[in-house]
Each structure stands twice: as structure tokens, then as C-alpha cells.
Amino acid sequence: MVTTLTDDVWWVDLQGTNAFLVDDDVLTLVDAGMPWHSSRLARAVDQVGSVGDIGRVIVTHFDIDHVGGLGRLGGLDATVYVGVDDAPYLRGEERPPLGNRKGLLQRALDLTRATPDLPVEPVTDGDTVGSFRAYHTPGHTPGHTAFVSEDRSLGLLGDLVVESDGRYELPPWYLNYDESRIRDSLVDFADRAGEFAVACQGHGTPFVDRGTDRVADAARRAEEGGTGTDTTSTRA
Asked: Which of 19, 157, 168, 189 is deepest in the core (most CB within 10 A)?
């Protein structure tokens, strides 16, 4: 299912996880779902262009439900941009650590993945990729990175947050490498990130307005440890 969020941003609902397409001078794929989502993802891309038209891939982090489709998306020939600390896992040069519960889960699930035969470009905090600026937001994974394009008023949030009942929350603790670090990353991102209206995260329904405010609200609640409710959210 493909939903138009703006004239140059499309949401690909892969049933349980999200991918996005952005016309950012070149067609840009953001995340790629599970390995078995590759056919569904290819059909979605065909509604916007073609897999061969994709000139750039942005990966918010190394998790099987965000990178699994890359190695099976036939016709894809583009550089993949991913946070520097997650790049060795995506390339297959290193395996996630056994000493971390999330790393152990990643190791087990990674057996289902085909390592993509694509150039992988590591991204550090402050780098630019097209019109996007990278913000290192570790905690969910070591290299988790959010991206903001002020030109397109668009935030790519990955799993820094999840959408739940019309507002943003931190992901469940058991899915994070470091719960305290992701909390700090959310607060830091809310403080540093440029303004954006459209907010696209890995799970749940993306928002088409007030993206910066919604992230700031989640950061405030995370910092306070509160559970307030935003009942006025308008989703795509």
C-alpha cells in the first residue's frame, strides 16, 4: 500500500513496518522492510517510478525489519547511507554483540538476510545526504540515525520513536540496546533538529503536520517519565 504524504514523499506500508520514498532530486528509498517484503516493496516503488530509478537509499538503522529487503530488491543499484556504527553489520563485516540482548536477537534474525551487493557509505552526526542532515541518535541501535530535510520539511525518525494512539513514544525497552541512551538521544534530537512538519517513523502511522512539536512532546514526556496523552493528533 502506497500513501502520498506530500507531493514528493510517499509512505509504503509493509504491514508492521514502514518504508518511504522521497523525491529528493533523486528518488530516495528510506528503509526496506523484512526480507520477505522485497516483492511488495518493488510493487510499491512501481507506483512512483521503478526500482531502477532509485538513486539513493537511506537506512535509519540496522534491524532486520529496516534492512532485510535490500539484498532481495532486484534492479536496485544505489549507494546505501547508514550510521557509521551500524555500517559494519549491514556490510556483513561484523556481527552484532552477543553480550547485548538486542544484539543477540539481531544475530538470530540476520540469518534470514542476504547482504546487499551495494556500496555502503557510513554517515556521522552532521553529515548531509541530499537535502537531509544526519543526527546520530543511538540507543535503539548503536548507529541509529535520524535525518531531517528542512527544504522538504521532513523528518525521517526510524525507531527513535514509535507512533501509538496518535502520539510518539519511545520503543519498548526490550527492543533497545540501551534504554537510557535512546531517551537521551530523543531529548537531544528534539533540542537540535531543524524544523519539519512531516514526520516519518518506522512503525505506526506517519504524521503530515507538526512533526517537530510531536517529537518535542515525546521528548518532554520521556524526560519527565510522564504518560500524558495527545488527543489532537492529525495523521496521514
From this structure: 157
What does the pLDDT look like over 48-69, one tens digit per residue? 999 999 999 999 999 999 999 9
Cα→Cα distances 188→51, 136, 217, 220, 233, Å: 35, 10, 13, 11, 23
d(CA 62, CA 47): 26
Are 57 and 24 within 8 A, CB to CB?
no
Q: Hey, what's the cell of 7?
A: 507531493
Q: Are 223 and 217 in contact (CB under 8 A)?
A: no
Stated as kind and residue range, the H or E segment containing 11 is strand 9-13
| Cβ contact 33:66 at 8 Å | yes
At the top level of CATH, the class of 2-224 is alpha beta
Query: Which pLDDT value is given to residue 110?
Result: 93
Q: Is 158 exposed, middle or buried (0-12, 13-18, 19+ CB in 10 A)?
A: buried
DSSP 207: B
CA-CA distances (angstroms) from residue 56 to 69, 87, 105, 208? 15, 16, 28, 23
